[in-house]
């Protein structure tokens, strides 16, 4: 994968995961049925499988059966689910945060619109790593920002409420404009959360609050083999000190320090910026497994020793 396609593939990956999040409850891939209080997983009701008569039987075998079913169908699935993010962190660092996370994509959109409107990423303060990007057409981008602030949080509220209330029920209530308290509270609550975080909090949530991100951060930092950003220090003299890599990073990482930074989401923005400054294939940065092997982009890997390149 070349640097000219790195950003494109990342955007496609983010869009694909957002669509998956929206479609999972609609297609009964994953949701909770509020009527039966059961988990729907790939179209199948996932219950404890405990027959009512077992509760009446106070014998040891009945108690053991109930405990076993609760563990197998209640506790174990959650342990497996919670293990996903530590495993992702151990092998891929915070790649999920940079390439899939819907909130991360929303925060990047907010950064882009804020840059176009006021010339900096943060709504309240300027930062040294803000890109020297000229302001765009304010009426156009202001309209896009307003539409995004209305449509995206409401759409997110409808989608996420669908994990707890049947999507068909939600859309029926929307069409008839008659809402139950649960549906109304779910949509409004999620919409307010998304609006506040996208305007005020943004990547601070990614760095200090998000549990999934923190698990990836911790296990990625502990792992000696996780995917991470590396710099070709043998060609450090080629650096023009343009600071393009610093300004491209929305997580406020300093790539040229060439250290494991727990905030890095492996987005590759600094790789693209460096290749733009030094020429395609001459950039100093690459994503590699641990501190040695180079994974991508291929054009930057060509400048490294053959033994460090993953085929």
Tell me which oligomeric state these chains represent: single chain
* Class inferred from helices and paired strands: mainly alpha
Low-confidence stretches: none
How many individual domains? 2
Shape: globular
Strand order of the largest sheet: 1-2-3
CA distance, first residue to last residue: 12 Å
Q: Count of DSSP helices? A: 13
How many strands in all? 6
- The whole-number mean of residue pLDDT values reads 87
| Helical amount | 55-70%
Largest sheet: 3 strands, antiparallel
Relative strand content: 5-15%
Radius of gyration: 23 Å
The succession of helices and strands, N to C, reads HEEEHHHHHHHHHEHHEEH
What does this protein look like?
The protein has helices at 3-26, 52-56, 60-92, 95-99, 102-118, 138-161, 167-176, 181-201, 203-208, 211-222, 244-248, 269-278, 298-301; strands at 30-33, 38-41, 44-46, 227-231, 285-289, 293-296. The chain starts with a helix and ends in a 10-residue tail after the last helix. The protein is globular and about 75 Å long. A three-stranded antiparallel sheet has the order 1-2-3, with no helix packed on it. Strands 4-5-6 form a three-stranded antiparallel sheet. It contains 13 helices and six strands. The chain is mostly helical. Helix content is 57%, strand content 8%. It has two domains: 3-37 and 87-208, no CATH class; 225-308, no CATH class.
């Amino acid at each position: 994968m070349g640097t000219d396609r790195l950003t494109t593939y990342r955007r496609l990956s983010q869009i694909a995961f957002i669509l998956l999040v929206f479609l999972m409850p609609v297609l009964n891939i994953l949701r909770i049925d509020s009527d039966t209080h059961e988990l729907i997983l790939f179209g199948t009701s996932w219950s404890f499988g405990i027959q009512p008569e077992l509760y009446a039987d106070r014998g040891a075998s009945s108690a053991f059966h109930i405990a076993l079913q609760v563990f197998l169908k209640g506790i174990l699935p959650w342990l497996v689910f919670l293990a996903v993010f530590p495993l992702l962190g151990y092998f891929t660092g915070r790649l999920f945060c940079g390439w899939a996370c819907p909130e991360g994509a929303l925060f990047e959109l907010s950064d882009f619109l804020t840059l176009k409107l006021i010339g900096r990423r943060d709504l309240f303060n300027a930062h040294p790593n803000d890109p020297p990007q000229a302001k765009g057409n304010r009426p156009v981008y202001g309209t896009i920002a307003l539409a995004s602030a209305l449509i995206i949080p409401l759409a997110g509220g409808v989608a996420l409420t669908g994990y707890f209330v049947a999507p068909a029920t939600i859309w029926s209530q929307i069409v008839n404009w008659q809402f139950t308290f649960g549906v109304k509270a779910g949509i409004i609550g999620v919409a307010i959360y998304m609006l506040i975080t996208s305007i005020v909090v943004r990547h601070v949530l990614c760095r200090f609050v998000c549990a999934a991100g923190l698990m990836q951060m911790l296990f990625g930092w502990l792992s000696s083999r996780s995917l991470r950003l590396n710099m070709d220090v043998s060609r450090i003299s080629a650096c023009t000190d343009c600071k393009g890599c610093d300004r491209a990073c929305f997580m406020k990482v300093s790539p040229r320090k060439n250290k494991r930074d727990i905030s890095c989401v492996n987005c590759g923005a600094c790789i693209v910026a460096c290749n733009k400054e030094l020429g395609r294939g001459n950039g100093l940065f690459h994503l590699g497994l641990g501190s040695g092997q180079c994974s991508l982009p291929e054009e930057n890997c060509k400048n490294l020793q053959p033994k460090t390149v993953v085929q």
